Amino acid sequence: MSAALPLHPKIAFLGGGNMAAALIGGLLKTGWPTAQIVVAEPVATRADWLRAEFGIEVNHSGADLPTDADALVLAVKPQQMAAALAGLSLKPGAVVVSIAAGVRLNTLQRLLGPQVAYVRTMPNTPALLGAGITGLFAPADTAADARALAERLLAAAGACVWVDAESQLDAVTALSGSGPAYFFLLVEALRDAGTALGLSAEVAAQLAAQTCVGAARMVGESGLDVAQLRANVTSKGGTTEAALNHLESAGLRAILATALHEADARAKALGDALDQQ
After folding, report:
1. pTM exceeding 0.85
2. Which fold has domain 11-165?
3. In angstroms, rounded to a whole number, what is the distance separating the alpha carbons of residues 164 and 277?
4. What per-residue confidence (pLDDT) applies to 5?
5. What is the DSSP letter of 124?
6. What are the distances in angstroms from CA 215 to CA 148, 177, 183, 225, 255?
7. What is the pLDDT of residue 79?
8. Which residues contact 38 (CB under 8 A, 6 or more apart)?
9. Which CATH number does 179-263 carry?
10. Which H or E run contains 37?
11. What is the DSSP letter of 22?
C-alpha cells in the first residue's frame, strides 16, 4: 500500500451472508459511513435485506464492485470463490481480506495476482453478536497499514489474534472456528443430564445455559486463569470434585485433544482439495 489511507477507507464485500453482515453492522456501529461500504450479493432477497438493514449499496456480482475499493472482504463459500472473483478488478495496493475457510493465500494470489496485499482470517460465529474472535495471518512482507486495516475490519466483530504461519489457521479453525459447536454440545449434554436427574426440560435447559454463560463471563472478566477458576469452585471432598474426578478419569482432556486434531486434519484436507481445484 503506497498511500496513506483515509479515516474510513472504502470497503467492498464479496458476499453478503451472516458473517459479512456481522462485520458490516460492527463497522457501522463504529461510525463507518454507509457510503464507504458496498456489497456484491447475487441473491435478490438477501440483497434487499442488506439494503434495508444497513442502507448500503448492494450490487449483483463482483464485477459490479467499485475498482477504487481500499479493501475487499472475501465472504463467499470456498467452492464459489473462483466464480465469484470472475470479472472483479482491484486497484494496486488494495487489501484482500479472506474470511473463507480453507482458501489458502497461494490460491487467492493465483486468482487475483500479486498487485494487492493479502490477509487470511478465520472468525467464528459469536462475531454475529460482536463477541467473536478471529485468527489472522499475512505474509511477512505485508505492509503494516495493510495488516492494520485488516485487523480494524475484523475487530468490528470481536477480538483478534495474529498467528505466525498460515498453516496455524487450521488449528485456529479447530479451536475457535469450530469451538462454539463444542460449547453448544456441552450445554446440550448438561441439559439432558439434568433432565435425567428429574428436572423438567425447561428448568434443566435454563440452568445449563445460564451456568455456561455465567462461567464464560468469569473466564473473560475475572482476570484469573481458568485453572484457578476451576480450583476456586472445587471443594475438597465435595460434589464438584466428584464430578471432575470422573471427567478426568474418563479422559475428557484426551477426547478434546483428539477432537481438535481431527478438526485440524479435516481443515488441512479441505484446503488441499481447494488447492487442487
Report:
1. yes
2. Rossmann fold (3.40.50)
3. 26
4. 73
5. -
6. 32, 20, 12, 12, 21
7. 87
8. 10, 11, 12, 13, 56, 57, 58, 59, 65, 66, 69
9. 1.10.3730.10
10. strand 37-40
11. H
